[in-house]
Amino acid sequence: MQKIYIRPCVIGLGYVGLPIYIRLQKKFDAIGFDLSKDRVKSLKKGIDLNKEHLKKEICSNKKSFVTDKIQKIKNCNFYIVCVPTPITKSNKPDLKALLSSCKILSKILKEGDIIFFESTVYPGVTENICATYLENKTKLKMNKNFFIGYSPERVNPGDKRHSIEKISKIVAYNTNIKKNINIIKQVYKSITNKVVLVNKIKEAETAKVIENIQRDLNIALFNEIFVLCEKLKLNFNQVIKLASTKWNFIKFQPGLVGGHCLPVDPYYLSFIAKKNRFKMSVLLAGRNMNNYMKTYLYDKILEKLKKLNINLNSNILILGITYKKNVADTRNSLALDIAKKLQKKNRKIKVLDPYVSNNKNIRFVNSKTLNYNKFKAAVVITKHDSLKRIIQNFKSKKIPVIEFFN
After folding, report:
1. Looking at the chain, which terminus has fewer C-beta neighbours within 10 angstroms, N or C?
2. Confidence of residue 1 (pLDDT cuts 50, 70, 90)
3. Strand partners, 32
4. Domains 8-199 and 209-287 share a fold
5. Comparing 177 with 274, which gets the higher pLDDT?
6. Diameter of the chain by CA atoms?
7. Is 3.30.470.20 the CATH classification of the domain at 8-199?
8. Statement: the pTM of the whole predicted model exceeds 0.70
9. How far apart are CA 151 and CA 266, in angstroms?
């Protein structure tokens, strides 16, 4: 049997694309493409500014490389698109990055190429928008001249237990050509051993958004219970502990919900529901509650400072501003929003986050030169593991530490 030549290319080298590129290097001479010259420059040096991957992982195959030049990826024949799909200010799907990737692909697409999309979208985007765009721009026909598929990303930044090679990965395609199916299997089995093959792309797209929506709604419920317990002066942790004694009680943690997925995906599904004349009332209820937690936490910080007789104009240190612990991502970070609002109120308030140091809108202090005695209080918003020692030092010096959700 003749060996099939596969040259994969990953378009978009962020939190999703980079780990895929790293895995592909183990079996193929892969190419990673990103429009950001700075991102490509740092990755060529083996530096991941997202602090998720080491140099030895990024540069494991000498025949693989990263680039921002379109011409250098034209000879690839299997493209995996991993670009962000955010929302607009009016909470509508923003597909600009996805269409930009399609525009790049339209310049180099050729007979027999396979394209997989991993970006989170509403059902129908892969076939009705991306594939249609490529057909219109190239005059090539889907399922005849080029082939598409969808594999929803399941990357969880900061989670080493559920790294990409250990998780189940849905791989949906709309081709029945045996040769192409074999290629698809080879590529995705080099990424993870747990491949779930399906032939309905829209079902895979829908599965992806509801994975995150389910979590968003559950966290919203626990946030609401947390706030109620505070109002009723009940011990939230004890309430949940008691409820957990029932065999089918599912436990979630309350907290600030941010990042690129949970605050975004409900609006994608809501958008396509409205297009089909169906209003999803439960879907966005969780969004309202989780967004409210920013206001709630801000007010609680002011309240606790007042109880401690600490003037808001005092020197106060905020610890952690990323959207969740142990990651460098500040996209849709409610912690960052709270920090900005507090700093706007008082210029003496500073921020310390080991994962973030270059946000021009934030006034930082360095952990290496941290003068504990300068501060009247520390406020923990995002509790990175690397902050535990600093928190303990504040406590040992009898400096008040304000924490939540513990």
Report:
1. N
2. very low
3. 10, 66
4. no
5. 274
6. 79
7. no
8. yes
9. 19
